[in-house]
Every structure is written in structure tokens, then in C-alpha cells.
Specification:
Number of helices: 8
Radius of gyration: 16 Å
Structural class: alpha/beta
Bound molecules: D-xylitol-5-phosphate, zinc ion
Helix content: 25-40%
Shape: globular
Largest sheet: 8 strands, parallel, barrel
């Protein structure tokens, strides 16, 4: 079953409530919160995303899918846990060794959130196989993390299918989430390859009818 996680990164000032309430009405499965610290990636959205997290929790029942693009993962987990996120995802590339990866996996679980582990486009998917039995979601970046509205990197489709084959062969029950440049054209390729959670920001926020595009994403061709 395909789930849709709508990213608020491209949300315009002053349009917060109409957009978030519209997304709730359109039945997005999650609100995707793109946390950037200005170090792991160039942009800094940290305070804005804290504000969105608080707002989404106050005016909707939508689950939060928090995507940490930060160096200080420990601090970010502590900052976002108060908003009771359903998912906290961190980047493999922000960890200095496997002990650190495991430390954050346990920390997120101790805070009763599902754990996501994300890989940038240039990271080999094999590098994170050993962690998959311990996480709930693998977030495969289909753009270079750091900004919305980028073009989908089509060679990531192969990476998604490789991951899907691996988890099926090893009977590992995790969700495969894809993030970046997802629209009605690129969604079919990644769904066919095995992705079952689609992050989409620009394509949804620019749509006239949120429900129409979200329903279209869920259509299993
Ligand atoms: C990029 C973020 C993505 C991005 C998706 O670093 O992780 O979530 O906002 O936005 P679109 O769908 O506009 O590519
Ligand atoms: Zn994201």
C-alpha cells in the first residue's frame, strides 16, 4: 500500500494554516518535516521546522515524518521528540561510525518513534544493509538533500530496486521511502522499483487539488 508524505519545505509564509488544513482534508498520510542545520546541508530550516511541527500538532492529527539533515543528530532528536513524531529519520552520512548509527536508532526507539535511516544519492545502498533489521524505514534520497524542487535523479531507481530485492531476499520488513523530485511522472518508476512511501513537496503544494494528486500517487498501476 502506497503512503504519501507531503513535504512543507516549499510552503510559503502566510499560507501555513490553509495548506496544512487542506493537506489534512486531502488525507496525506504524513507531513514531512525537512530539518536542515546549515552544516550537514547549506540551508537552515531548523527553527521554521520546529514551528511547523508545533503547528501541525496543534491544528491537525496528521503524523509527523521528521527528516533530519543535521550533524548534531542527538540534539535534533531531543528538540523534535516533544512534537511526538511518528517517524524520525537521520542520515547515515552524518554518523562517524556504526556505533553511532546504532546509538541513534536506540535513542529514537526509546522515544517511541519509528526509526528511518536515510542515504544520500552517492552513498552505496550496501553500506546500510547491516542496520536494516533495526530500523522501520529506509529513506532513499532521489535528489541531493538540501532543497526542494530539484530534478529527480533517475539512476536512484536502480538503487531502490536493489534495496527491495535485498529486503525481500532477507525477509526484512521495512518501508522504502523516496524523497526528492517525486511527481506523477517519476512516482511510477520508484513504485515499480519497490518504494511504498513517497515524499512529495513541490508537486503537491503546487497542485490545484491536493486530494487529486495524493490519490493519484496511491493508484497502483
Ligand atoms: C530535500 C528534502 C525533500 C524535498 C522534497 O532535501 O529532503 O523532502 O523537500 O521536495 P520536492 O518534492 O519539492 O523535491
Ligand atoms: Zn525530506
Amino acid at each position: 500500500m502506497i503512503e504519501v508524505s507531503t513535504s512543507l519545505l516549499s510552503l510559503k509564509n502566510g499560507e501555513e494554516s490553509i495548506t496544512i488544513l487542506g493537506l489534512e482534508k486531502a488525507k496525506t498520510d504524513y507531513i514531512h518535516i525537512d530539518v536542515m542545520d546549515g552544516k550537514f546541508v547549506e540551508k537552515n530550516t531548523y527553527q521554521r521546522m520546529l514551528g511547523y511541527s508545533s503547528y501541525v500538532k496543534r491544528i491537525t492529527n496528521l503524523p509527523l515524518d521528521v527528516h533530519l539533515m543535521v550533524e548534531n543528530i542527538e540534539e535534533a532528536i531531543e528538540d523534535f521528540v516533544p512534537y511526538d513524531p511518528n517517524i524520525i529519520t537521520f542520515h547515515f552520512e552524518a554518523c562517524k561510525d556504526k556505533e553511532e548509527v546504532m546509538k541513534y536508532i536506540y535513542k529514537i526507539k526509546e522515544n517511541h518513534c519509528r526509526v528511518g535511516l536515510s542515504v544520500k544519492p552517492e552513498t552505496n545502498i550496501e553500506d546500510i544493509y547491516e542496520f536494516l533489521p533495526y530500523v522501520h524505514i529506509c529513506l532513499v534520497m532521489t535528489v541531493e538533500p538540501g532543497k526542494g524542487g530539484q530534478t529527480f535523479l533517475s539512476d536512484m531507481v536502480e538503487k531502490v530496486s536493489k534495496l527491495k530485492q535485498y529486503i525481500d531476499k532477507n525477509k526484512i520488513e521495512i518501508d522504502i521511502e523516496v524523497d526528492g523530485g517525486i511527481n506523477l511522472k517519476t512516482a511510477d518508476n520508484v513504485k515499480e522499483a519497490g518504494a511504498n512511501v513517497l515524499v512529495s513537496g513541490t508537486a503537491i503544494l503546487m497542485a490545484k487539488d491536493y486530494k487529486e494528486i495524493i490519490d493519484e500517487y496511491r493508484n497502483n498501476q
